[in-house]
Each structure stands twice: as C-alpha cells, then as structure tokens.
User: Fold this.
Amino acid sequence: MPEPTTPTSPGPGPGSGQDPVPAEETGRARLRRALLRPSRSQVVVAVLLAVVAFAAIVQVQTVEDDDTYAGYREQDLVNVLSGLAGASRRARAEITRLETARDELVSDTDAERVALEQATSEADSLSILAGLVPVTGPGIRITITEVTGRVRADTMLNMVQGLRIASAEAMQLNGTVRVVAQTSFTDAEGGLVVDGQQLAAPYVVDVIGDPSALAGAMSILEGPRVDLQDDGAEVEVVTLSSLDIESVRQPVEPEFAQPADPQ
Assistant:
C-alpha cells in the first residue's frame, strides 16, 4: 500500500519575479505602520482622553476653591455676604458720586463755552457798530453829485439817520470816514466837515445791510433822495452783493463814565 504524501504549495515559478516574504517580517512591518501612522479612530480616542483629563483637572480645582468656605459656620458666611454687600453698596455710591461730578463739570464747561461764545458775538457786534473793525457784506452804494447847489450838512445827517432806521450796520463816506452814532456833520467852504475831515462832492456813501431795505429807505416819499434833490444834487443808488468798508475809528477812552459792577 503506497504511503500517503503531504501536498506542498507550489512555489513561485522561475519567471514570476516575486521573492517569498517571511510571516514574521510582515507582522513587524504592520506594527511599525500602526505606530508611525495613527488611524482616524486612534486620533479621536486621543482627543477624547485629553478632554476627559482637562475636565478632571478643572473639577479638582473647583472643588479646591469651594473648600475655601467649607469650614465656615453659617454666621461666618452671613458676615462674609454682609461685608460683600456693603462693599458693593459703597462702590455703587462712589460710582454715582463720580458720575454726578462728571455731569456737573460737563454742564459747567458747556455753560462757560456758551457764555464765551455769546460774549464774543456781542463784542464783535459792538466793534462793528462802533466802527472799530473793517467789515464786508451786501449793501448799497449811494453817489451824490452836486449839480445846481450844495448839499447841506443837515440833509446828509438826515440821510444817515434814515439809513440807520432801515437797519444799516456799517457806513463809510468817501472811503475815508467811518460813520457811526457819534459822527458829526458841519457845513464848510467847498463841502462838508465830517468828524473833522474836509470832504467835497461827489459824496460816495457805502452802506452795509439788507440791500432792498436800504434802497427802499432812500426812495420813500419825502425821504433822503427828495431832500438831496431839493439841495440841487443828483442821487444814484446801486445795490451790491458784496461791499467792503475798510475805514475804522480809533477807540476813545471815556472821560467820565466807568463800567458798573454787576449786581
């Protein structure tokens, strides 16, 4: 009876080009790849372990913090809470006081600013009315030419007063004399003396204000134009959108009047 034979696996053929790989080396290679290349599941597990460790540390710290008051009696805790409440009230009161002080400072600053602006505006207006500063603005130019007679000082003064009633803000005569409330007009040989200056016709009066109101004041019935024509003069009135008055008066120190103390 023939003996049984154990079948053997066919080896690689002579032309296959494959070398046999020992089973032990294949296992080591797989272990190496597993260590050097962690899979997605391994990464997830590592992250979860890190989160759990962090939570455990926080919990331990919280427990340690809570232990600060663990040995306090009830009355001690009440005293601590009362102290904290009192400190909170004092802090809120201080905040309120500081906010009130801040608001008062802001209010005082605003009041001072408004007062300063108002005083500056009033000073500017008074300087213009007193003829102390050059001015510019819309207005009219009146040219008075003597034809058959001479213009009298009274006629010129009446014209100036009529223009003031029409809200003239600044006036200038012949480019040299700033006409204000104290300006004087006197008849003289060959013309007029205005504030001590000798002037001769033609008289050119520059007036700043509302052009339509000023022109209307010159043309009213029995007004300045008629009076000037009665003196033998021709009158031309031109409205201007911009007019410069350069002449100024020097401030005069009062001899008797002094500012009164505010009540």
The radius of gyration is 53 Å. Residues 73-129 form one domain. The beta strands are 135-146, 170-173, 177-179, 185-188, 191-194, 197-199, 203-208, 233-245.
